Structure formats: C-alpha cells, structure tokens
Amino acid sequence: MTESITITDNRTGASMEIPIQNGGVSELDWQKLLPGIWFYDPGFVGTAACESAITYLDGEQGILRYRGYPIEQLAEQSTYLDVAYLLINGELPTPTQFDEWCHEVTYHTFIHENLRKRFLDGFHYDAHPMGMLVSALAALSTFYMDAKDIFNPEARNKQILRLIAKMPTLAAAAYRFSRGMPFVYPDNALGFTANFLSMMWKVAEPRFEPDPVLVRALDVLFILHADHEQNCSTTAMRTVGSSHADPYSATAAAAAALYGPRHGGANEAVIRMLTSIGSLDNVDAFIASVKAGETRLQGFGHRVYKSYDPRARIIKRTADEVFAVTGKNPLLDIALKLEETALSDEYFTSRRLYPNVDFYSGLIYQAMGFPLEMFPVLFAIPRTSGWLAHWVELLEQDSRIARPRQLYVGEEKRDFVPISRRH
Ligand code: CMC
User: Fold this and answer.
1) Mutation test of ligand 1: which of 228, 273, 302 has the most ligand atoms closer than 8 Å to its C-beta?
2) Count of other CB atoms within 10 angstroms of residue 254
3) Tell me: the pLDDT tens digits for 115-141?
4) I need a labelling partner for 117 at 20 to 30 A (CA). Which of 54, 150, 359, 410 fits?
5) Does 280 share its domain with 250?
C-alpha cells in the first residue's frame, strides 16, 4: 500500500502526491500546491504542531505511555521523581543518576526570602492559590539572571531543577497564605512528596510525619498527572517557549492555561456535582437530566480517550488505599452509582463516554484534606516536569516560532470617519 495521499486543486486541475509520515502529512508539501490555502482547525483538533518522543497516547484503546513505558507499570513501580527524570532525559536514571537527581531537587526546594515575604505576602488575604502560583512562577525569572541563557545546557538544567524543586514550596506557601497560616520551610530530610505534605500541614510539631500510604498515593497521582502530550497547557508552554522566553515565564503561561476550568478544574466540578446530587436516591434523576442535555456528567468523556481513561482505572484503586486511612469520602458511593448507571446506559455507551482522570481524583484530594481551590495547584506540581520535557524537546528541535494563520472574516477596506461625523 502506498503511504501517501494525492490532492487535486479543482480550480486548476493540478495534482500532487504527498507522503504520509508518522501518521501525518507535511503542511510545507501541501503549500507547494496550495499556497495561501490554510487548514481551518479551531482548537487544533486535527493539527499536529510538532513531532514528539515523550508521551504516546492511543485514545481508542486507552493506552498511555511515557517514553515507551506503560503508565500502569510506572504507577505501580516507579516514583514521581524517577518519572520526572525519565520525561526530561528520555531514559530511566541509573541508581547513581537517581541519587544525584534526588539530591539536587531536594537542595533546590528553598525560595528566595523576598519572593515569600515581599511578593507572596503582598497578595490580598483571600487570594486564590492558583493565581498566586502563576504569578510567583513568572516572578521567579527575575531572581535568576542565567534564566535567559536557554541554549546553555548547564544553565538550562539548573532552571529545570529549580522549577521542579520549588513547585511544592510555592504551592504550599500559596495555600498557607490563603489560610493565614505561617510559612513552613522545606524539610530536606523528607522525600519530594512527604516534604510537600509537611509544608502543607505542619503546625507546631518538631517534625511532621506524613502517613506513608498517603505519601505514596499522592506520589502515584503525581505520576499520573506528569504528562499528557499536547494538551492546552503544554501547548501554551511550547508556544511561549518557541519565542525563546525563559522557562519561568513559559511555565507561568502553562500554569495559567491549567487554571481554566476546562483544563485543570474538572475534578473540582466533579466534587461540586456529587455534592449537589447529595444522595443515591437522586442519581437516576441526575442521569436523566444529563441525557436531556440539561447538564453534563462531570469527569466523563474525553477529547482523545474513547474508552476507559487508563489513569482513571489506577486512581480508582488508589482511592481505596487512601480511604482505608482517611475514612471513606461520603461522596464515593454516589460516584460509584453514577459510573455504574452511566456505563450501562445506551446514551453514554453509544457516545463512548467513560470516566476520565478527574472522576475520582477530586475525591482522593478531598479525603486527604485539600480544599477545592488547591486541586489545580496539585495538578501543576507534577505537570511541571512534563512541561519542561516538552520545552527541552522544542529547543533541541530547532523549532520555528508558533505563529498560526487565520481566515479573515472581517470588513473589506473602508475609509476612516472623523469622530465629528459619526452618528
Ligand atoms: N456528559 C454528557 N454528555 C457528554 C459528556 C458528558 N460529560 N461529554 C460528552 N458528551 C456528549 C455530548 O453532548 C455530545 O453528544 P451529541 O453527539 O449528542 O451532541 C457527545 O457526547 C460528544 O461530545 P463533545 O462535546 O463533542 O466531545 P469533546 O471531545 O468536544 O469534549 C470533554 C470532551 C472532555 C470536554 C467532554 O467530554 C466534557 O465536557 N466532559 C465533562 C468535563 C470533564 O470531565 N473534563 C475533564 C476532561 S479530562 C482532563 C485531562 O485529560 O486532563
């Protein structure tokens, strides 16, 4: 079978054969036959903007792999820092590389006192922690003069370490501020995830000892959220990165994209939906209202996955482990009944709507004590490693600046009217 397509310009009768490579056709080839004819593709639904070797996703079959490793194996056997190294460097670290990486990340957890005392303390008392995080990320670029030196591998690696290491510190600082609680300095004797929980919850005890089951569960959630190829925030990272902005500014842009309820906010919407349903008796009526088009079943459906989201399967297991420690989230039974009802209903099965990553993750976060406004922040902590992996890949690919075309649908040329003659 020939791996190519032939296009014909019916205005002229001219034809051209274009090879299909890696599942795509090159726009540059297309332009040779059709200069000035653009692909109209709002939301980039059918446009591949880059080649990437980081994450493989097959939405038909529910497959997700980082650098070739199945997400199930990583969630079962790896740790978040192991996965972060893998995403950025392309290979799993050797024991020596891993020790060095953990040491480096651990020793970059502190933030400059000016950032905490002057910058973060300047926010309004009830500031949203995600808004604080986005701003603090952008502010970080002003603290590191080598941040703009993006083609110097040594400087680039330094910023990567700083960003991965400081995310939990910034996240916890934003939370503590929004609760009027004192800042907790990083405890470098603790691992990445345990240290984050210590910065979140420590009060007056000499050392915060997080429950190891909860530490592992959160670490698994971090693994599951570390990358998801060309989603909205990663596209923002690549777009800003393509202008050769420093990585702090690009990460702030990516985090801002994640702040939106269509991207990082769906698990919060799930909790609100479950709370409003309130009891098992109301599930059938709620499903009927979804089918009538009055509302959506939050945490169901996905642009890419048209079968069970593999991350949702893993999260469901993690939820059981967490609830064994925290006690069951009372909303869980409603979620389970919703899932059971939906998966046996033709409306959902015919549209291939299955639970996605957000259906159960909010229940776990809530049971662990995180308030709803921290959910996107919890997403941003691990996704930083994915964003940075894409940023490095982009710089190494010698890519062009992101600059899409538009189809102009506005006014034709018309003459300016002075204000005195406008009615
Ligand atoms: N509840 C009820 N009906 C739905 C839902 C849902 N959650 N999702 C899709 N549909 C229906 C939709 O009404 C349409 O039906 P019809 O063909 O009769 O008009 C059909 O399914 C296709 O929907 P669509 O809106 O064209 O699908 P999309 O690919 O544009 O949207 C989605 C994907 C995730 C935005 C959507 O499924 C949705 O709104 N889900 C609820 C919100 C949610 O859980 N978001 C988190 C996504 S996972 C995040 C991540 O991976 O990081």
Assistant:
1) 302
2) 32
3) 988 999 999 999 999 999 999 999 999
4) 150
5) no
